[in-house]
């Protein structure tokens, strides 16, 4: 019986993807790497160290270690979230919806735990979740299902009893690989990506989810 919901965070609960893009471009520029917004979208959903490794292998910059670049990006995103991070449309609604249904609620993100905690505190929703997991502590990040499986285990839930909410193809792939029922709420610019057909349901906003949608998922 589906009784658990697990959320991604960046781009789903908080409008942080643009902030990630700005932070990455600013920090990468300090090592002579100029990334366009289109290029930063290529790594959406990956862990920060994987993003940096991806571009370091391509550009092979010198002067700063990959670890230093990773930490500078994370520090910058945390600063930007605290200064200008906004909840995604429908955030209070969707959390209240599942709370009233009595669902167990978890969060499974590719972001480092210190950034997750900063975002949840900024949004004042940290106490909503019974389990919060970061892929930084797993051997593999999304699209590997490890972080979703770890979160489900912490909640005492079978993955087959979980609904996962995601906004990226990478995250959707991870949730589906974990055998979870998956709802995607993509960003407007890639909403028509044909790969989202893998999801059980696609929405334009969290506000669109309701009892009728839930019934379609659990029958």
UniProtKB/TrEMBL annotation:
Transmembrane segments: none annotated. PANTHER family: 2-DEOXYGLUCOSE-6-PHOSPHATE PHOSPHATASE 2, PSEUDOURIDINE-5'-PHOSPHATASE. This is Sugar-phosphatase. It comes from Chitinophaga ginsengisegetis.
């Amino acid at each position: 019986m589906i009784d658990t919901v697990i959320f991604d965070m960046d781009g789903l609960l908080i409008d942080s993807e643009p902030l990630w893009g700005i932070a990455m471009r600013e920090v990468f520029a300090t090592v002579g790497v100029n990334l366009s917004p289109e290029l930063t979208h290529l790594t959406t959903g990956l862990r920060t160290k994987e993003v940096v490794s991806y571009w370091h292998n391509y550009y092979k910059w010198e002067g700063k270690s990959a670890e230093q670049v990773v930490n500078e990006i994370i520090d910058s995103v945390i600063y930007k979230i605290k200064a200008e991070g906004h909840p995604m449309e429908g955030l209070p609604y969707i959390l209240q919806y599942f709370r009233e249904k009595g669902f167990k609620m978890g969060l499974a993100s590719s972001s480092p735990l210190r950034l997750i905690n900063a975002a949840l505190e900024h949004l004042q929703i940290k106490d909503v979740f019974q389990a919060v997991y970061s892929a930084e502590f797993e051997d593999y990040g999304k699209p590997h299902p490890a972080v979703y499986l770890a979160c489900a285990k912490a909640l005492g839930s079978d993955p087959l009893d979980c609904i996962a909410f995601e906004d990226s193809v990478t995250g959707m792939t991870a949730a589906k690989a974990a055998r979870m029922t998956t709802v995607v709420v993509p960003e407007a610019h890639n909403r028509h990506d044909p790969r989202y057909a893998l999801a059980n349901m696609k929405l334009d906003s969290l506000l669109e989810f309701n009892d009728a949608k839930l019934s379609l998922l659990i029958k």
